[in-house]
Amino acid sequence: MFNYTKYLMVGALAFSSVAMAEYDGMSPEDKGKAIFVEADNRDKGWVDMTSDMKMILKTATGEESVRNLRIQSIEVEGDGDKSLTIFDEPADVRGTAMLTFSHKPPATDEQWLFLPAVKRTKRIASSNKSGPFMGSEFAYEDMSSQEVEKYTYKYLKDEQIDGKDNFVVEKQPIDKSSGYSKQVVWMEKERYVPSKIEYYDRKDSHLKTLVPKDYKQYASKYWRAENLVMDNLQTKKSSVLVWTNIKFGVGLEAPAFNQKALERLR
């Protein structure tokens, strides 16, 4: 599953525990990148994670539908994370499962979707990564971990949200098949977690906004937002992800994350 606080370290840029004074004198591009590298360094070493999730889909007129999911994720050293997403309810999506292998460039992310109705697994093409994931306002590319190497960066300014100081950084995807021209991220200075993310479509119009809420710390180190609210400004639809029963260090193993496992998951 995607992880908005997961960013992998780039080469020799080891900005662990960067004091803010060390950003002085950096170019906007270097400063923006350093901020995201620091966010990654603070989130390394979680190894594996399981959780339950409720996906609430809201139409422009306020009608709601709810889906219940299970998530399994594993950290891969030197590459992106691997994740399994399994739908349990309602009945029309039960057994649907997605496998995601996130990668650092030049490799591209890989995703497979198992559809129980036809009992087959299909690969999500890179050209379709901007499509909506299971009817939500989250795109398939949002479901991958956000490696630092996937973007270029530019620090824009400092700004407060709800009384907390934030860095505001623009990041642009390197992958030309991305559905976004850029993202603007408000990164909280104290915990190095995103307070808000604005997504811009290929025409550079503001498409949607993500607001992570209700952060909780696990293992005295890892911060996770228990609510993710994605509002689509163009369609007026929204999707809310509510995370529960989050557990780290449960003993997941990488070989279990494979295409054949999709068909066995229930």
For this structure, the quaternary state is single chain
Judged by helices, strands and strand pairing, the structural class is mainly beta
Radius of gyration: 18 Å
| CATH homologous superfamily heading of the domain at 20-45 and 54-67 and 129-247 | Lipoprotein localisation LolA/LolB/LppX
The helix count comes to 2
How much of the polypeptide forms β-strand, as a percent range?
A: 35-45%
Number of strands: 13
The 3D shape can be described as globular
- Main-sheet strand order equals 6-5-4-3-2-1-13-12-11-10-9-8-7
CATH topology of the domain at 20-45 and 54-67 and 129-247, by name, is: outer membrane lipoprotein receptor (LolB), chain A
Keywords:
13-stranded antiparallel β-sheet; 266 residues; mainly beta; outer membrane lipoprotein receptor (LolB), chain A; globular
Topology diagram in text:
Elements: H1 28-41, E1 48-58, E2 64-74, E3 82-89, E4 97-101, E5 110-115, E6 120-123, E7 151-161, E8 164-173, E9 180-188, E10 194-201, E11 206-218, E12 222-232, E13 238-248, H2 259-264
Summarize the structure in words.
With 266 residues, the protein is mainly beta. The chain has a domain at 20-45 and 54-67 and 129-247: Lipoprotein localisation LolA/LolB/LppX (outer membrane lipoprotein receptor (LolB), chain A, Clam). It is built from two helices and 13 strands; from the N terminus they run αβββββββββββββα. The protein has helices spanning 28-41, 259-264, and strands at 48-58, 64-74, 82-89, 97-101, 110-115, 120-123, 151-161, 164-173, 180-188, 194-201, 206-218, 222-232, 238-248. The protein has a 13-stranded antiparallel beta sheet. A hairpin with a 5-residue loop joins β9 (180-188) and β10 (194-201). The longest helix has 14 residues, at 28-41. The model is unreliable at 4-19 (pLDDT under 50).
